[in-house]
Task: structure prediction
Amino acid sequence: MQAKDKAHWQSLFSHFCSRTANEEEEIAHKLLGEQFRGQLGLLHSLFKAALYDDHLSRWFVLEGFRSLFALVGTNGQGIGTSSLSQWVHACDALELPDQQREQLDSFIDQLYKDIDKETGEFLNCEGSGLYLLQSSCNHSCIPNTEASFRDNNSLLHLNALSDISPGQEICISYLDFCQRDRSRHSRHKILRENYLFVCSCSKCMSQMDEPDITSEEEEGEAEGETEGDEMEDEMTDV
Result:
């Protein structure tokens, strides 16, 4: 909004995906759902009152604002530059005997748990940025690259996770490490709600025969079976 060459920046923004829905798949962006209508309306009013500019008027009407909101929600990359994150990465690179590695990993796990109680899950996220080249990378549940901020600033690096052959597509994951380990249905639910597509990567295709239930539902069923077994044992004892 403060840039002098507004036409240049509007042109750059046009390269980002800003659709609010995928009509073919009948998917609407999660952040634009009915449950967020009130908050979005309030945010739109505050946004318009604080930053209105005639040159950017299309983003200040409600539909344009929804499109801008979807653009950031779909393309935004969390910027992680905390000194703690840098220290943990340095620890990961240390060559240690197995016992010392276990002790260090245990200490780091507990440290994150203790900090999480005070700061929440956004400890290593100092904001969200739009990166033109990185945002053009497609998603895979088994990515061959990942984003990092190794210079401890907002400069994003894409690091290869495996050998990449000439002509091979460079893919990142729109899911975090924990989400990638969840069931195919859980991953699809997150990607549909936040990125408006159905993933067809090799991992998802190999899991097509899995039941269409989320990881939480699987855990709930397992707990229910356990409780049922315990109840039957108690009744047998009686």
